[in-house]
Prior knowledge:
The structure is a homodimer. Chain A has helices spanning 8-18, 33-51, 55-61, 76-85, 104-138, 141-153, 281-317, 341-373, 377-412, 415-418, 424-434, 441-452, 459-474, 482-508, 510-543, 551-568, 571-580, 584-587, 591-594; strands at 64-66, 69-71, 156-161, 177-180, 186-196, 205-212, 225-230, 232-234, 240-243, 246-251, 262-275. Chain A is an alpha+beta fold. Among the domains of chain A are: 8-138, Acyl-CoA dehydrogenase/oxidase, N-terminal domain (Butyryl-Coa Dehydrogenase, subunit A, domain 1, Orthogonal Bundle), CATH 1.10.540.10; 156-279, Butyryl-CoA Dehydrogenase, subunit A, domain 2 (Beta Barrel); 456-584. In chain A, strands 3, 4, 5, 6, 7, 10 and 11 form a seven-stranded mixed beta sheet that branches. The mean pLDDT of chain A is 96. At the A-B interface, helix 1, helix 2, helix 7, helix 8 and helix 9 of A face helix 1, helix 2, helix 7, helix 8 and helix 9 of B.
Amino acid sequence: MPTYKAPLDDIHFVLNEVLKVEQLSAHYPDFDTATMSAILEEAGKLCEEVLQPINRSGDEEGCVWNNGEVTTPKGFKEAYKIFCEAGWPALGCDPAYGGQGLPHAVNTVFEEMICSANLSFGMYPGLSRGAVDALMQWGSDDLKNSYLPKLVSGEWSGTMCLTEPHCGTDLGLIRTKAIPNTDGSYKISGTKIFISAGEHDLTSNIIHLVLAKLPDAPPGTRGISLFIVPKFIPKADNTPGERNKAVCGSIEHKMGIKASSTCVMNFDEATGWLVGEPHKGMRAMFTMMNAARLAVGIQGLGLAEVSYQNAVAYANERLQGRALTGTKFPDKPADPILVHPDVRKNLLTMRANIEGCRALAYWMAMQIDVFHKHPDAKERQKADDFVALLTPIAKAYFTDMAYEGCTLGQQVLGGHGYIREWGMEQFVRDARIAQIYEGTNGIQALDLVGRKLGQDMGRLLRSFFHPMGAELEAESANPALIEFVAPLTKAFAKLQQTTALIAQKGLKNPDEAGAASTDYLRLFALVALGWMWLKMAKVAAEKLPTAGGQAPFYDAKLKTARFFFLRLLPATDTLAKTIGTGASPLMDMAHEQFALPPLGVGRG
Amino acid sequence: MPTYKAPLDDIHFVLNEVLKVEQLSAHYPDFDTATMSAILEEAGKLCEEVLQPINRSGDEEGCVWNNGEVTTPKGFKEAYKIFCEAGWPALGCDPAYGGQGLPHAVNTVFEEMICSANLSFGMYPGLSRGAVDALMQWGSDDLKNSYLPKLVSGEWSGTMCLTEPHCGTDLGLIRTKAIPNTDGSYKISGTKIFISAGEHDLTSNIIHLVLAKLPDAPPGTRGISLFIVPKFIPKADNTPGERNKAVCGSIEHKMGIKASSTCVMNFDEATGWLVGEPHKGMRAMFTMMNAARLAVGIQGLGLAEVSYQNAVAYANERLQGRALTGTKFPDKPADPILVHPDVRKNLLTMRANIEGCRALAYWMAMQIDVFHKHPDAKERQKADDFVALLTPIAKAYFTDMAYEGCTLGQQVLGGHGYIREWGMEQFVRDARIAQIYEGTNGIQALDLVGRKLGQDMGRLLRSFFHPMGAELEAESANPALIEFVAPLTKAFAKLQQTTALIAQKGLKNPDEAGAASTDYLRLFALVALGWMWLKMAKVAAEKLPTAGGQAPFYDAKLKTARFFFLRLLPATDTLAKTIGTGASPLMDMAHEQFALPPLGVGRG
């Protein structure tokens, strides 16, 4: 059975020593780092002691559908009750509706821990959080007052109903209809699939946010509206009333996240209310989706972390063979497999990615706080630009590194990694979905090259290129950092060159941008992680000489930085090269040649 | 539900047009390509119509253990009966024991098809085949006469019992004991784990090949002997007699290959007989393992192929959005997702790997036939050197590309790829084991750099470097191939340089070789695939101008070759660079620094 310990030391290092999270107190008057530490310690305990112990059993048991009702695995109801009673759903929510009003950055750390401990569990409050954000931004005061207090307390939960059997990425094709009633409500009819938390037994009500088309809708995505459709229609006193015709027809059997219910939802003239303006549903949905995309990236981070912890433990305990350079532990029947360079390479690949992604994730979360709270509109804009640019990168790269990382963690355990009881294979199966949902990673790459690069004449790009360029310049003469600054400066130049190349070629032929997209996203991500590693290495190098008993931490940080720059960053060479080969290697093949053309042998 | 069609056209192209398989008739007098085609067509039908239809249900149902007995999923017994009645287990076996005596190359193609159709099923006859090979080479005439006819017919099945709870890679640690009886037999006692096909209901007897230590065994791997331990001890008439004390204690619950039983086998003074000489069991086991390692590579190839076929079908059928360059199918509500560059990149990555690996696999299989049958000892030696060198590369690279490829195939299906009923996620889960068993891919890389590179003063390397260098030289002025020869010549030079570097640094410090090993294996594999692609491109370029109705096949082959050289081969740049960074980025981290050192915050 795997274990988990919240990595509070590294979290502390990133938030306090690298990112100086205390600066957020300028925007959150009640915020201070001592309180934050206390909260995160409690959050860690909850994840370690309540959520993690039901992760494996939840996977084995899964959710069960019976005549429209869904039962979550044993212990989930009790854990959810503890979760709500301690006020955890309210952590980052608005105090006006019962929230604790803490920075998004703190909530992001908590999300990482939840996903390490029990991703399936985390999806229930995670979806609610998305619903809260959408209602906060687009809901009328009536809707807010009816729904937000119950969603913030966790008494009710939320969903996002987008996908239909024939459409996922292309929401312009949706067929779910909304017909106005005379009282201002609507009759919603249609079938939605892949609805996470669409039905379950954790809460007394479930609030669906549903994309549908009004009778006068223009075609395509410009004709989509957003509706709120509760499972039970709230009574005047905001307690659940009449059962609405929003029913779970079945649940999916999936590769992983088995304790999270994935529902087919049938809306059969269900009563709903418009959220925001008619035909402007996509805009509202994007509020949820952008937050959700970063949250999915965090899921990857959390899974990679827990897989790393357990892989290291195994590599220390498993005695097998001897070190290539001769026996290291003569008192043992064999050396622990951690002596082997390739086992170390697997572990360090995970760790350099995890710690780099963690720094970037927390920095993005802090920028979201700046966007929400900074008094200066220019600062808000810069923060928003940075987050918008990095969101597809974080979603795709964090989840790719999580799948690859959990696979490496599993590999360290050899055959035991393939056996269910060891738990390492569950991390792989759970991580896999994060590359797919909230827009596949291919769609993230298209968002990056097709939307974010060119947006506002490249303004989003400048929110990244300018400060990174300035920092490289500032550190260029720092002898303690030259081993990092030198390769990063080269990789940064490659990123700038390929950006210009894609912008130029993509204007003439969008397939050129599409053909470069996933390699470009990965190149961008590696440079962004390199920047984070430069920041972390700088702090570590400064602190190490006087660190005393904490020296091993800073020393390990510098060694991991070295690994990143020597072993992971060089992938940028190949990526720049393959991007340069353009679209024709992909586009020249005729459609019918993808299924192998016949050669006139065999059955033809 | 996924489908499968045996890729007979590509098989025909590789065997007949590229590798000139007809030359094997010099060694196999009864072999001709017309017979081979007929056999492969029948084999394809069996895989498509008998084995593939029970692959999904086998995964859902799994094997069931009950009081020492194991039941395979519905349909497996019937399929195995059909399989044996048609004589398929005997395909490549010696006619002296009822085999059909066909070349190994033909059997390899059949193995690929079986693994595409139903990997779990294929493991039962696959393990038997390993037992046949070991007995053929090391068994006494008595043992051969007792066991081989039944194993060749499929009436009985075989296993390999190596791993114990505390040892897998390091077999020197095994504790299973063999005590001589007075009649020449032995009492075998110990526990073996991860025993594929250790117990099941397909055959009337199961023949275990067990590694154990004699009382006078020297320590380590030099003290291991091989024993044959039948489930039922054959009577004088070679029918199953007394039940032996070799009992299945439980089966593992695994990530995949769920219809293949993975058993804990308890030997409790079970009766066994020595195979080969005392203390020479590792040598005999390597006979089975080397064949098994190539067979595991073929498993990867088969899984990638079936995933590719289904991903292409989906990409052609799924209508979603429009091409980036404007509508391609105006009569449809949306374009098929195959119009998108990144979907094409995923598919072409799979295909360029699959077709390259197929060519290399079949070539290796033909070299095995040369090794077994060629009258000239020098030719046999060259063939054996080539196979020994390429075996770890094929095992590790084919299975890595299969896992990565099946993941890409699943990605093409988006959310549907994550749902069990679509079957794409099963290919990923099934492919995952192939990177682990028969020596993890990290162990394969160590075998390559630690054993194969230096063996016999680099003689194994010459079996690859000399003919490849000569072919590059011969084609260097061929204008039709310059686009392939030029990048391959550079990559080949990188391979030669890194080989020299590793040999030189590894002599002084074995950790240097270990630190380079997995990157070096991948670099080697990409160059080897490049060579295969050069051979295939040459044939395609020659045939294309006069190919008539077959032109689309050769044209597609050239386009896939281009994709390989432009998009996949450039990874060699980064690999050469990371290999050059040496061992210190991996070895400098202290053992205790792998678990994050404390920073004195939190609960510390």
